[in-house]
C-alpha cells in the first residue's frame, strides 16, 4: 500500500530537480502524477518513465493552467492534490534590479502559485478534498541579500498558503508550504545545467564548501529530502496540519554559530 494510492496529483516544475524527485516519489507511493513544466523533452521522458501525464505548463499563464486541468481530468477524471513547485531565481541588489526582471520573478513564483490554487482547488474540492503544497523557501521566512525579488515572492507564498488554508478548510483541502534552504539542484548549483563544462567540478566543489560552512548540518540538502516532506504534507500522515510553513534547511535558519 502506497501513501498516495489512487490519488491524482499535479506537480509543477516537474521535469527536473526538486519537482522531478517529487514526481518520482509520489508515483512510487501510488499516485497518478501530472507533470507540468516548460521543459517539454525532459518532462515527456519522465512522464513516460513514471507512467504519468505530461502537460506543457507555463505557470504564469492562466490559460495554460486551464488546459492542464482539462488534460488531467480527461486522463484521470479527477484531481486530488497539487504541488506548486515551479519557480525561478535571479541575483541582483534591489536598487540594481530592472522592473522587468522583478516582474518576471513575481509572475512565475507568486502569480504561478496563485493561479495554481485558483484553478486546481475547485477540482480538488469536487473530488471530495485533498492537499496543496506550495514551495516557498528559507528566504520566505527571513531576508536574503542579493535575491530581493525572489525573497519577496517567497514571503508572499507563505501568506497565500495561510489564506488558502483558511478559505479552503471547509472544503476539506489542507494547504501547507515547504521552505527549503540550499538544495542540490540547478538553482543552487548552476554546474548541473552543464555537467560537461570544463569548470563544472570546480563549481560543484565550491558550492559544497560554502554550505559546509554556513549550514549547521554541514552539507547542502538533497531534492529527495524535500520530496519526502512534500509527501508527508500530501498524505494522511499530516491530516491535522494546515496553513503552516515547514523549513527544511539543515539548521541554517536556527542562527549563527561562533564555535
From TrEMBL:
Enzyme class: oxidoreductase
UniProt KW rRNA-binding keyword: no
Domain of life: Bacteria
A GO molecular-function annotation: androstan-3-alpha,17-beta-diol dehydrogenase (NAD+) activity
Record keywords: Lipid metabolism, NAD, Oxidoreductase, Steroid metabolism
Keyword NAD attached: yes
Enzyme Commission designation: 1.1.1.53
BP-aspect Gene Ontology terms: steroid metabolic process
Similarity comment: family membership: Belongs to the short-chain dehydrogenases/reductases (SDR) family.
Protein name: 3-alpha-(Or 20-beta)-hydroxysteroid dehydrogenase
Amino acid at each position: 500500500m502506497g501513501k498516495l494510492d489512487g490519488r491524482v496529483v499535479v506537480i509543477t516544475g516537474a521535469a527536473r530537480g526538486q519537482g522531478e524527485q517529487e514526481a518520482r516519489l509520489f508515483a512510487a507511493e501510488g499516485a497518478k502524477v501530472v507533470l507540468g513544466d516548460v521543459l517539454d523533452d525532459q518532462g515527456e521522458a519522465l512522464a513516460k518513465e513514471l507512467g504519468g501525464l505530461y502537460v506543457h505548463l507555463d505557470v504564469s499563464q492562466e490559460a495554460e493552467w486551464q488546459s492542464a486541468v482539462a488534460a488531467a481530468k480527461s486522463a484521470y477524471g479527477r484531481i486530488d492534490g497539487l504541488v506548486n513547485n515551479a519557480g525561478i531565481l535571479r541575483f541582483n541588489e534591489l536598487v540594481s534590479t530592472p522592473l522587468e526582471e522583478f516582474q518576471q520573478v513575481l509572475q512565475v513564483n507568486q502569480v504561478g502559485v496563485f493561479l495554481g490554487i485558483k484553478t486546481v482547488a475547485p477540482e480538488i474540492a469536487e473530488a471530495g478534498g485533498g492537499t496543496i503544497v506550495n514551495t516557498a523557501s528559507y528566504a520566505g521566512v527571513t531576508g536574503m541579500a542579493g535575491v530581493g525579488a525572489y525573497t519577496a515572492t517567497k514571503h508572499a507564498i507563505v501568506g497565500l498558503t495561510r489564506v488558502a488554508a483558511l478559505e479552503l478548510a471547509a472544503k476539506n483541502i489542507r494547504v501547507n508550504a515547504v521552505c527549503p534552504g540550499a538544495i542540490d539542484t540547478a538553482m543552487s548549483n548552476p554546474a548541473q545545467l552543464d555537467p560537461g563544462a570544463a569548470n563544472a567540478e570546480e563549481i560543484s566543489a565550491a558550492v559544497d564548501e560554502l554550505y559546509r560552512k554556513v549550514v549547521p548540518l554541514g552539507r547542502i540538502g538533497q531534492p529527495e529530502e524535500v520530496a519526502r516532506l512534500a509527501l508527508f504534507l500530501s498524505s494522511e500522515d499530516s491530516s491535522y496540519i494546515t496553513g503552516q510553513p515547514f523549513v527544511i534547511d539543515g539548521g541554517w535558519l536556527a542562527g549563527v554559530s561562533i564555535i
